[in-house]
Amino acid sequence: MSYLQIKEAFDYFIIKIIAMSYYENQQCIEACMECAAACNHCAMECTKEENIQMMAKCIQSDMACAVACNAAGQLITFESSAVEEMCALCAKLCDECAEECARHEHLDHCKRCAIICRHCAEECRKMTTKELSFI
């Protein structure tokens, strides 16, 4: 076997491993990205409410959750050694955001955000309990 054939086989193997770990964790990555988008939308819609002071904690929770979700999704994709810790933090912030949004369930954007945050928290918790193949 030539050097070039060995290199091609190695490159193929590495790409296959990366693709496998991405697809293995795809549900959590997608849940994180969906949650970040929902939280950003919710925060934006909260700024349009009549009593914005009443929505301040919701906006803050939305923003913190969106940042954590984006970071978790990226770290999973990058196969970072910090995935478990980031997913644990993300689940915590998603739970807090869902709880805050649930206080405003009369608003459609808050109701939807709470549902999506709960789902993302579940997916992130799975990442903290399973053996991650890339770590």
What value does the average pLDDT take? 88
Low-confidence segments: none
Number of helices: 5
The CATH class designation is Mainly Alpha
Largest sheet, strands/sense/barrel: none
- Our measurement of the CA-to-CA distance between the termini, rounded to an integer number of angstroms, reads 31 Å
Using the CA coordinates, give the radius of gyration: 18 Å
Helix content: over 70%
Classify the fold: give the CATH topology. Substrate Binding Domain Of Dnak, Chain:A, Domain 2
Share in β-strands: under 5%
| Mass-distribution shape | elongated
Task: Identify the CATH architecture.
Answer: Up-down Bundle
Q: Output the structural class.
A: mainly alpha
Q: Using DSSP, what is the number of strands?
A: 0
Tell me the number of structural domains: 1
SSE topology string: HHHHH
